[in-house]
Design a protein that fits this description.
2 copies of one chain form a homodimer.
Chain A: H1 2-5, H2 12-19, H3 23-29, H4 33-57, H5 62-71, H6 89-93, H7 95-121, H8 131-152, H9 156-172
Helix pairs in contact in A: 4-5, 4-7, 5-7, 5-9, 7-8, 8-9
Chain B binds a DNA duplex (18 and 18 nucleotides) through residues 11-14, 21-25, 27-29, 32-33.
Chain lengths: 174, 174
DNA sequence: GTCTATACCGCGATAGAC
DNA sequence: GTCTATCGCGGTATAGAC
């Protein structure tokens, strides 16, 4: 529900209805909306990391693993579960809720930078390529691709952006 | 206010307070929240186009104009006024509100593609570079850069992503 | 054209019975 | 642990006076 409607747009009552749980149950197990959201965000972050690592850990060159990650099947029009939360004022205002969002993208950028560094070591990428910068660019293309796709009501801009990035990466690869 | 709190997070009452206008005035000039938001979104879209065109129309090579646009001063942590709306369920669900968002990004991608096509014509970029793809990638890096920056609570990821993209572009340019 | 008053609803949380 | 009842608040809009 966070994914579809965001934090502000999701009410405890709606959650209870979807979970077929009563008010009392919810407030017995969670102190309130924020704590419940925290649990949900941490879970989504863990799932995102697991899904990404599946691609990263597979064999192949750095470019192969990165393009595999970029081009894996995605629910493009629904956007990114974690990324969409950055537009939620209440999430951004609460350090406890922002933390798991921050950590997830921090992990992703670090992991991508490692793979690019490996690609440099193996001679796949030129020595001048900056791993941190390139990692941020890759993560940004995905997040921005979701934004463009949702704006257009079509997955096309996402696919174009990803293809454009892959072409640029192949352009600098030896 | 749309920029800071989004559509769902902005109430008519708050708007009236900020504008020092009464309820009656607002409902006399606008049929309701949606129509008011439509006007605001269209205005933001026009401003975004004007600001971008300022960079695009300046002199210089295609790469210079694109990097000028990418690196211009931005309120990174506040995000993109138009892009953030793609996370708003009520905006996405209403075709009338989504239309100006769609048109703004449509215009931006088209304009960037034109500049890249000019760069190809002048021999700055290789014939194999796809203008539409590259344009989508550039727009996505900006939108995604905002997302990463807001997640991190720092402009750094945005700057890294932009620099990474500029490096890749320069890598394929002759 | 602008004002105040009012209406209706749903949010987020609490209270206290069972 | 779960239930129902209730609370106070603010969102969104309308009514009708001025």
């Amino acid at each position: 529900m966070l994914w579809e409607r965001g934090y502000v747009g999701t009410s405890p009552k709606a959650i209870q209805l979807a979970a077929e749980a009563g008010q009392g149950s919810m407030y017995h197990h969670f102190s309130g909306k924020a704590e419940l959201a925290k649990a949900a965000i941490e879970r989504s972050g863990a799932e995102l990391r697991a899904a990404a690592e599946e691609q990263f850990a597979g064999g192949g060159t750095a470019t192969e693993r990165i393009t595999g990650y970029l081009q894996r099947d995605r629910d493009v029009l629904k956007g990114c579960r974690i990324g969409r939360l950055t537009a939620d004022p209440d999430v951004m205002a609460d350090p406890v809720l922002r933390a798991p969002v921050d950590e997830t993208f921090g992990w992703l950028r670090t992991r991508l930078a490692e793979i690019i560094a490996e690609g440099k070591k193996s001679g796949e990428y030129p020595a001048g390529l900056d791993p941190e910068q390139t990692a941020a660019t890759i993560a940004a293309v995905l997040q921005g691709g979701y934004v463009l796709a949702r704006a257009a009501g079509s997955a096309e801009p996402f696919d174009l952006a990803v293809q454009g990035l892959v072409s640029l990466l192949k352009g600098v690869a030896s």
